[in-house]
Amino acid sequence: MAWKKWRGMVGATRQYASHVPPAHIACLPSYREGLPKSLLEAAACGLPIVTTDAPGCREIVRDGDNGFLVPVRDAQALAIALRSLIDNPVLRAEMGLRSREIVLAEFSREQVIAETLAVYRELTQ
């Protein structure tokens, strides 16, 4: 595998997927998140995900299914999880497919709108 030099932030774009094809793995080590759009976008692009077991991140990643959750502030566990995906293209592909399935089933625009409207209806009754 050839490593590519990171050239900085992608920034705001409507063409997110055009920046992802060179990527094989999405990684977001974080202390806490809301619901990280970067992980939703990576999952929608069919990438396996390595992230920390933090609120928000664990809503998207099913440990061992579409990626790996590692303890917060554990660089060694993060490196081990990344290495397992780097060394196993079959696992990367399987987890990437699951990421896409999960985001389509649970985080589609229609699903999010329906759940938001249900909360509003419940609050106004």
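(ticket continues) Second input and output from the same batch:
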Amino acid sequence: MDAAEPTPATAQPDPLAAEATAADGFDWSALQEAATAAMRHAYAPYSGYAVGAAAVVEDGRLVTGCNVENAAYGVGLCAECGLVSQLHLTGGGRLTHFVCVGGEGQVIMPCGRCRQLLFENGGPDLRLLTVAGLRSMSEVLPDAFGPHDLA
């Protein structure tokens, strides 16, 4: 397999999604599947670590993103960057539900930079499916720096 191609994702969603759906009624499995589909478009020829992200916007839109690496390592883009770009490209709004997956379709945690992006575009009440189950953005990024700090 070419290093630029992500590892094929498993057909079964992470058991965390089923538990999360049972807990709050939101279809986390479908959101994880959307993130996995986005992950298949990742450009990760250097690390081989494909990532996909998916979120629902307050008006019901689905936005997705995948990571895009670059030979100048510092300018690579995380999947969440593409997702936030798609959010604003398609009309803006607030993210309400979010999940990020790795190369096998498994739930992974957003990095610190991406947590900040998610806070800015979803606020403290954004719901995330994480490796530890359902969490709010305020739990994933406590005491977050945000627009209120610039006022």
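Agent notes: The first strand starts at residue 52 and ends at 57. DSSP finds five helices and five strands in the chain. Closing as not reproducible unless the customer responds.
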